[in-house]
Amino acid sequence: MSDSSTFDVAIIGGGPGGYVAAIRCAQLGLKTALVEKRAALGGTCLNIGCIPSKALLHTSEQFHFAAHQAAASGVEIEGKVSLNLETVMAKKDKVVTQLTGGVDMLVKKRGITRFNGHGTLLGDGKIAVDEKEALSAKHIILATGSAVVDLPFLPQDGETVVSSDQAIAFDSVPENLVVIGAGAIGLELGSVWARYGSKVTVLEFLPNIAAGCDTDVSKLLERCFKKQGIKIYTDAKVTGTKEIDGKLNVVAERKGKELAVPADKILVAVGRKPYTDKLGLDTVGITPDKRGFIEIDDHFKTSAAGVYAIGDIVRGPMLAHKAEEEGVAIAELLAGKAGHVNYDVIPNVIYTEPEVAGVGITEAQAKEKGIAIKVGKFPLQANGRAIASDATDGMVKIIACAETDKILGGQIVAKGASEMISEIVTHMEYGGSAEDLGRTVHAHPTISEAIKEAGLAVDGAAIHSL
Ligand SMILES: Cc1cc2nc3c(=O)[nH]c(=O)nc-3n(C[C@H](O)[C@H](O)[C@H](O)COP(=O)(O)OP(=O)(O)OC[C@H]3O[C@@H](n4cnc5c(N)ncnc54)[C@H](O)[C@@H]3O)c2cc1C
After folding, report:
1. Which end of the chain, N or C, is less packed with Cβ atoms under 10 Å?
2. Residue of the CA atom closest to atom 33 of ligand 1
């Protein structure tokens, strides 16, 4: 192999795990290659995930405000508020292009060599791009991300039965949208289309929506969605579809009865699975586990010497910021530094209205683990800024160790919870206590004051609630 195709580090996959790893490797003086099969960098996150979905959440919120809420705030709009979905999608695409272009520029400016094509391991540090041997590296980082999960009895056709890949790009507003799965992706895209006028029904197999949150948080969120006109059925086991009076219906078993919901589009949002297609794992002796994840040790090492893995293809939450942190950590480890990810403080957000953000353990998890805790809660109905901003649906909940007062977790349901959660994350990162939160001065009036109050409530000392 020529000098120009030999690298210190080669990364397969240019998503938030891979491109961030590449940038950090280059910053640390490692000769770096990045192999990505998409034309644009940024992976699922920038192209078909986090960013397009947030752009749609933003524009749909604006539309919904203009159409349904503005008048109550004294904003008189003459004539009918109408939707131009083409403009909505063009705006979303522009956001995506701006961000993927930005990553492309960063990668170029850092001197990272980009290979555009499908990367396959060949063994001995060699990698083929689109089946042609193209480069070799001392260290290889696998960051190939994830793909949508199909329901075997309801295969996706990309038209009627779709995944988030299509639901971020519908060319008309479906009259009836059935969302299967009440996780972040289903609830976010369900909210988008409900705001644009679809009749949205969410079917969830589990007893609560937003799995991973405490029950009181899920129940509060469920009430909020119902107020917004989104129908939610929990404990609903979808079994397939059938025609009733010439109309397609999604059928589910629920509490011993059959539930049938009319559908023009069916969004399957039941999770994502690691993506390792044609990666050549066998050539280096890596066998993914039963669920398809690549096993790694605490330093991201796979079972193959010189091969590492990060992001959605390895254990842990499938989140962009988790992948990014792993990208930084592996680069630092390869450069001989002490790369590290604190998995106890990875925040998780659902960007609905209100937003839900959590970090650390929930009350239920503490009980399961037998950890003695104290809980402080503060409702947004008692927060001045929330009242002034029509945003009283929500609460903050702090979970602290009963013995030491150290914060073990926090959950926020609030407008802007995604921004607010960083305060709890930071306190936890530094080993802060509920008292630390309660004694931290917060600007007034802010919804964040509810975090301080919840910290105080851990010791029964909240000022603005009983
Ligand atoms: C609709 C939706 C909304 C989301 N919203 C959020 C959110 O709000 N916040 C959040 O944290 N997470 C969100 N996620 C999840 C987030 O997108 C992923 O966790 C994140 O992108 C994972 O990063 P990654 O680098 O591991 O993989 P990916 O982003 O999936 O990137 C992997 C890249 O590898 C490339 N690739 C794969 N195989 C090969 C190969 N053999 N050769 C070359 N290239 C290859 C792929 O083309 C892809 O570009 C969302 C996901 C979806 C689908």
Report:
1. C
2. 13
- Scanning the structure block, which residue is given the tokens 């936890």? 428
Q: How far is the CA of 22 from the centre of ligand 1 (A)?
A: 15
Please check whether residue 68 is in contact with residue 81, taking contact to mean a CB–CB distance below 8 angstroms.
no
Who's near 147: CB < 8 A, 6+ residues apart? Answer: 272, 273, 275
CA of 55 to the centre of ligand 1 (A): 17
Q: Tens digits of per-residue pLDDT, 235-253?
A: 999 999 999 999 999 999 9
Q: Mind listing the domains of the chain with CATH numbers?
A: 3-147+273-341 (3.50.50.60), 161-270 (3.50.50.60), 345-457 (3.30.390.30)
The H or E element containing residue 132 is strand 132-142
Name residues whose C-beta falls within 8 Å of residue 297's C-beta, 6 or more positions apart in sequence: none
**Catalytic machinery residues:** 444
Question: Over the stretch 107-148, which tens digit does the pLDDT of each residue have?
Answer: 999 999 999 999 999 999 999 999 999 999 999 999 999 999
For residue 3, pLDDT beyond 90: no
pTM of the model: 0.97
CB distance 339 to ligand 1 below 6 Å: no
DSSP string, 205-232: SSSSSSTTS-HHHHHHHHHHHHHTT-EE
Count Cβ atoms below 10 Å from residue 28 Cβ, excluding itself. 16
Distance CA 287, CA 290 (A): 9
Distance 254 CA to ligand 1 centre (A): 33
Task: Please give the Cα distance from 436 to 459 (Å, whole number).
Answer: 12
Mean pLDDT of 163-177: 98
